[in-house]
Amino acid sequence: MKIPSRILTGAALFAAVLSSSFAQTATTKPVGYRTETVKTGVFNLLSSNLDNPVGAAGTIDAIAATVLTDNEANFSAAFVNGEAITLKITDGANAGITQDVTGFTATTLTTAQDISSLIAAGVKYEVRKTPTVASTFGATNSAGLLEGGAATADVVWIPDGAGGYTRVFRSNGGLQGIGWRRVGGGAADAATLPIAITDAIFIQRRGGTDLPVVFTGHVQTTATKTGVITGFNPTSRVIPVGLSLTDSALQTELTQGAAATADLLWNPNGTGGYDRYFWSTGGLQGVGWRSVGGGSTDRGAVALASGFLVQRRGTATNVTLRIPTGLDL
Amino acid sequence: MNKAIIVAVLGLLTTSVSEAGNILATNFDEVSGGQRPISTATGAPILTGGIVQLGSFQSADPSALIAGLTSPAGLAALLADFITFGSSSPIGGDFSGLYAGDKSVAIAADSALVGKSIYTLIGNAATLGGSSQLAIVRDNESFAADNPVFEALADISAGSSVILFGSATGPGFETALGMSTSSLALAPVPEPMSATLLLSGLALLARRRRS
């Protein structure tokens, strides 16, 4: 998929260090916008590749199972209970790990999973509001997705983390009322459903024309980890600029082998289909990045789309979504 | 959803079984070493050339169409009924005697392909219509709508594939993967040109008889 990307520079691109009253440091990352063309009649796999600004950052003082403590923090001043929040560990051996925050006090964060075995006191972190349906596509659908009923509107497929999807569309009335709604979810508001920066989404475009969708937000400037489970994992490139297979270095964490045994990366081809790549370990196809059915031609220079599928054939593992070497953000 | 894989909780994670719009058309499995190279109706190896095309038939049962492969009209009728999926591949494009093409086309829920068996058609010329020899193999999988993606394998070397036209008793020969034990031998179909010549001959014979 051809992805026109433009990260604003100059006046709109800035990195400011803000000192808060509670002795934390929050760094505003580069901001920008990018446009993706959602093609009609197909499932479009993509990611905004843009996030919310850092709301809080600091150093973890203590970890007890799912509860992380930063004695100098004041999370209550930065976030509102009930909103989706994402924690990201930014240094240490497992830098890049992200977690849904399920609750907080002024000085503690509760994570969805117990990551105490992966991090130690003293690691640095960032916390952001997680992008939502409303923040990604507009509270009143400024993105212009086709509105209607569940069977007629454009549908956004959001990974649920367990191999399934939550499907959301913009209802324009009837029993489900007006607003963002889940398929089969009645009239409950789905505007605040989170879309993790590490996840790619499908947009099932039922509108009769291709639709350019503009995303705005902040740029992640450090590598991010995400878990991939056996099967298909819609995965975000995270970084809003081109990333080659070689630069991704994903072969270091994915299963290598032959087309029938290795983990596959399904890269959208812009027409609803995919080109599939894997790290070949030898045989007829030789060693390196290769395309399925593509002989021994080296594919290391192929650019990953904003969102792609990781077809994990082995057991679940974490993969790192890297920042290209030499990229100055 | 933000998630990390933590060894202790791996058992809690469910396995995704999403359907996935790509089909790999191939005649070998390098991992198992299985292969089914292609030979002509007279047993000559086809190391390069020919055509391999995936698709399915509009007809629920193509047996009558296959039985009709005794004339150019029969071939034309069969190809008119055949819905292609993706572009064609040649034999030996990358590796001598072998083919592998990853075909990817979005399949809408109302596509005529949905629910139909996947077939591999192999011809001895650059086009199926121009081929004088043909093989038809039904693969053991069916087309499905993207939901949101669809994936299948059309490996004619797999034991589950069924040869509907052609023969599995072709000679073994050396491919890029090594010596095969047997090959898929194409079966002859009437060429338009040979049929024209036949008709011309019959016409000439009729004229001579009249004279």
Which secondary structure elements does this structure contain, and how are they paired or packed?
The complex is a heterodimer of chains A (329) and B (211).
Chain A: E1 5-6, E2 17-19, E3 25-27, E4 31-38, E5 43-46, E6 54-59, E7 62-64, E8 67-69, H1 75-78, E9 85-89, E10 98-104, E11 108-111, E12 124-129, H2 133-137, E13 155-159, E14 165-172, E15 178-182, E16 201-204, E17 211-218, E18 224-228, E19 231-236, E20 243-244, H3 245-248, E21 264-268, E22 274-281, E23 287-291, E24 303-304, E25 307-312, E26 317-321
Antiparallel strand pairs in A: 1-4, 2-3, 4-17, 5-16, 6-12, 7-8, 8-11, 9-10, 9-12, 10-11, 13-14, 13-16, 14-15, 18-26, 19-25, 20-24, 21-22, 21-25, 22-23
Chain B: E1 22-26, E2 28-29, E3 34-35, E4 38-39, E5 49-57, H1 63-67, H2 72-81, E6 82-91, E7 100-104, E8 117-123, E9 133-142, E10 151-155, E11 162-165, E12 167-170, E13 174-175, E14 178-179, E15 183-185, E16 187-188, H3 192-210
Parallel strand pairs in B: 1-10, 4-15
Antiparallel strand pairs in B: 1-7, 2-3, 5-6, 5-8, 8-9, 9-11, 9-16, 12-15, 13-14
